[in-house]
Write a structure and sequence with these properties.
It is built from five helices and seven strands, in the order H-E-E-E-E-H-E-H-E-H-E-H. It is an alpha/beta fold and 208 residues long. The radius of gyration is 18 Å and the shape is globular.
């Protein structure tokens, strides 16, 4: 029953706030910054280097696009917004591709009074930077590590991971890799399949 109500609340949030304009500048006061370990795998050639990426919510130089920032560029930024930290439960909201934290513009106003919200930009998106090797140093496991780093910086032991689109894959893997840190998972705007064994029968998904 609780899970059904949770899903219903997400659907209602989309409709109830559809006509309200979301102003991200109102959340400037909630910007945070954290330094997280990351690997630069150099395209799979040679020995990976351990670097640090900063998780924050500031804007990079207006003349430099985030995708051009590497581990040696300044500022080193990956965004997260920390809203209502006094709430008893925490919701980590992970956007999809291509997007940024404002993807959650309908859900943030709806949940911010009841939940502690952590809303990051994933590495390489918006103000977020990456370790300098986009193709080989951005695995789902790497991004799970970023999300755990956000929890650590915010002082949170456990959170509900809510993923939209590709962000849902990050949340699912987060639950598998770190069940000690993620108490529940919500996937939004993703296909639903019926698990039968190690594969799906195509007729289950396609009318015949």
């Amino acid at each position: 029953m609780g899970r059904r109500l949770f899903w219903a609340a997400f659907a209602y949030a989309l409709a109830a706030h559809a006509q309200e304009a979301f102003n991200p500048h109102l959340y400037e006061q909630f910007k945070q910054k954290a330094s997280c370990k990351a690997l630069n795998r150099h395209g799979g050639e040679g020995v990976p280097d351990e670097v640090h990426i900063d998780i924050s919510r500031s804007s990079p130089d207006a003349n430099q696009c985030p995708e051009h920032l590497s581990s040696t560029d300044s500022p080193r930024l990956v965004g997260y917004v920390n809203i209502n930290p006094s709430a008893s439960r925490t919701m980590l909201m992970v956007h999809g591709w291509p997007a940024m934290w404002t993807t959650w513009s309908k859900q943030i106003p709806y949940f911010e009074k009841e939940y502690h919200l952590l809303v990051p930009d994933q590495r390489g998106f918006a103000s977020s930077t990456h370790p300098g090797d986009v193709e080989a140093s951005g695995t789902i496991g790497d991004m799970v590590g970023d999300m755990v780093c956000v929890l650590d910086h915010a002082g949170i032991q456990q959170a509900i991971c809510v993923g939209h689109d590709w962000g849902a894959q990050v949340c699912w893997e987060a639950a598998r890799m770190r069940p000690d840190r993620f108490e529940a998972v919500v996937g939004v705007t993703v296909p639903v399949g019926v698990p039968l064994s190690s594969y799906l029968v195509h007729s289950i998904l396609t009318p015949v």
